[in-house]
Amino acid sequence: MNCPKITEIYACLEQELPAEDRRRIEEHLEACPGCRRLLADRRLFLESLASLPPLEPPPDFTDRVMSGLPPLKSPARLWLGLAGGLYLLFSLLVAGLALGTRTAFFPVCLKIFRSLFNLAAEFSSLIIRLIQQVYGIIKALRIFLGVAAGLLSEILPAGGLGLAALFLIMVLGLGLFWLLLRPAKILSRS
Asked: Is the pTM of this model over 0.85?
């Protein structure tokens, strides 16, 4: 027997189907005890929902929820001012390029515009690589700390665990410091 989808049976019960589909499902229900049982269960469920008292949130519900949320961090004024200044400079350069094609100002604007564009491209590449490296370091630290904590809890008694954790944090801090200084040494050689 080819049973209809359960959503079609429920839609038939809630009278959301066209007449032809409804007739097809009703004919199927007469022949299929499993689908009749599904329909009876759904009918019982809807009746029990209808018997529940209406749910009204308390008047101060929104205020309580909103006060429980963490405050929004506003962007730093320095970055906002810097972005605005760069936008103004960029706009002036574009205007100078568009309006001053025959003046002596055009080659200077073009050179500055190309330099800024190259700088932005290199800076975004640097930011992407930095984010990838930081993500990799954090992921490696999480794995290392999980393994180290598991090993330490098996090896040391409960009293020595705090001292071992302090030692582990110091080693990780020095390792992170070394990792952060290493690229500076590589860049200074080239």
From this structure: no
